[in-house]
TrEMBL record:
<keyword id="KW-0732">Signal</keyword>
<dbReference type="InterPro" id="IPR000709">
    <property type="entry name" value="Leu_Ile_Val-bd"/>
</dbReference>
<comment type="similarity">
    <text>Belongs to the leucine-binding protein family.</text>
</comment>
<keyword id="KW-0029">Amino-acid transport</keyword>
<keyword id="KW-0813">Transport</keyword>
<dbReference type="InterPro" id="IPR028082">
    <property type="entry name" value="Peripla_BP_I"/>
</dbReference>
<feature type="signal peptide">
    <location>
        <begin position="1"/>
        <end position="18"/>
    </location>
</feature>
<protein>
    <submittedName>
        <fullName>Amino acid ABC transporter substrate-binding protein</fullName>
    </submittedName>
</protein>
<dbReference type="GO" id="GO:0006865">
    <property type="term" value="P:amino acid transport"/>
</dbReference>
<dbReference type="Pfam" id="PF13458">
    <property type="entry name" value="Peripla_BP_6"/>
</dbReference>
<feature type="domain" description="Leucine-binding protein">
    <location>
        <begin position="24"/>
        <end position="337"/>
    </location>
</feature>
<dbReference type="InterPro" id="IPR051010">
    <property type="entry name" value="BCAA_transport"/>
</dbReference>
<dbReference type="InterPro" id="IPR028081">
    <property type="entry name" value="Leu-bd"/>
</dbReference>
Length: 401
């Protein structure tokens, strides 16, 4: 990966010195490099950069131009930072498209403030809240990850199947937390479970003992925390363990990270239940896993495969569109992601370019799914059961509705 990125930098510098006006095609990346998901973001970015490196190694884009990926920090939790990041990508970097954002609030802010007004397609690999579906986006905002309307229901079903019939819930008070809590609560109660208390909390505080007092007073022994591994979720679990009020913990994708176990303690979280978007057993999954390992990052990292697919799909759409212009890209994206067409697997860039040049239809089957976008830019997906065992989150298998 380092050699590939170095080669890309050298090639880009050489062409720039030669004065070529269209030496580069840019796909931006915006994500929470700082803030409550800062430990989750690097492998997500690595997933997207792997796609870029493969494309450049196989001849580049649009007749040999170099694909580059400038990036910016949304902080995840600051809407103005997300807006500024998107503005820089759209109006300063002049990107053709954007991978991101990651947190839902950042995606909504980036879309509304800069991407949609600028006609820039965004594909988020991690924004799971139902609020993304509801955006008035002129068909410019897509995602390669399923909505929490689905994940919340699956988490509820999992908890019920494991015999948990009463839980206390606390969620971070933003689009992500609210959407996930609503879906989980509806599914849990519909299945016969009892939500003893359902309490919102604000991210970024140092003390949640007051909220934990209210949660534990409900009498529930199981605490479901729908928040972020490097933010409020971490603090709440640490203080809950110290208080000894709960015997079981559960969470969703925002909590699945090694930093959470390291910060709270392996003994404290042993047996914690969680869910996260997973990858179905498709040919592209194993291809991506091997390429990611060779590139030096964990292919099972949450949202890494979805980020790879987002970047590869956008590059295919640009190639299909025939230029680095923004106009027409959303239609091209739908075309390359959907059947019918010759199947393109992760890494098969040269094959795709040849087929597109010959006027053939293609259908990308990715690392994390088939990505047949619906009218809202959403995809069907699968959810993976996770549990803390032996000091780490481990996958326990795919879950079905």
């Amino acid at each position: 990966m380092k050699k590939s990125l170095l080669a890309m930098a050298i090639a880009a510098s050489g062409v720039a010195l030669a004065g070529a006006a269209q030496a580069e095609v840019k796909i931006g990346f915006i994500g929470g490099f700082t803030g409550p998901i800062e430990s989750l973001t690097p492998p997500i970015f690595d997933g997207a950069r792997l796609a870029v490196a493969q494309i450049n190694e196989q001849g580049g884009i649009l007749g040999g131009q170099t694909l580059v990926m400038p990036n910016a920090d949304t902080t995840c939790s600051d809407a103005s930072a997300a807006s500024n990041a998107a503005d820089r990508m759209v109006n300063t970097e002049n990107v053709t498209a954007i991978v991101g954002a990651l947190c839902t609030g950042a995606t909504v802010a980036a879309a509304n403030s800069a991407a949609v007004p600028g006609g820039v397609v965004m594909v988020s690999p991690a924004s799971t809240a139902p609020a993304v579906t509801e955006l008035d986006d002129n068909d410019l905002v897509f995602r390669t990850v399923p909505s929490d309307a689905y994940q919340g229901q699956i988490l509820a079903k999992l908890m019920l199947e494991k015999g948990f019939d009463e839980v206390a819930v606390t969620y971070v008070n933003n689009d992500y937390g609210r959407g996930l809590a609503d879906a989980f609560t509806a599914g849990f109660e519909a299945g016969g479970g009892t939500i003893a208390v359902n309490l919102a909390h604000e991210d970024g505080r140092a003390d949640y003992r007051s909220e934990l007092g209210s949660l534990s007073a409900s009498g529930a022994e199981t605490l479901v925390v729908l928040a972020y591994a490097d933010g409020s979720g971490q603090t709440i679990l640490r203080q809950a363990y110290e208080g000894g009020a709960f015997t079981q913990y559960a969470g969703a994708d925002g909590m699945v990270g090694s930093s959470l176990v390291e910060a709270v303690g392996a003994d404290a979280l042993e047996g914690m239940i969680a869910t996260r978007p997973g990858s179905p057993e498709l040919p592209g999954t194993e291809i991506f896993n091997q390429a990611a390992q060779e590139a030096g990052f964990d292919p099972s990292a949450v949202f890494a495969a979805q980020a790879y697919d987002a970047a590869f799909l956008l590059a295919l759409a640009i190639e299909q569109n025939g230029s680095a212009e923004r106009e027409g890209l959303s239609q091209a994206l739908r075309s390359v992601a959907s059947a019918p067409g010759e199947v393109i697997l992760p890494g098969e860039w040269e094959k795709a370019v040849q087929l597109i040049a010959a006027g053939e239809e293609i259908n990308y089957e990715g690392a994390s799914g088939s990505h047949e976008f619906d009218e809202n830019g959403d995809v069907p997906g699968v959810v993976l059961e996770m549990a803390v065992e032996g000091g780490a989150f481990v996958g326990k298998g795919l879950l079905q509705d």
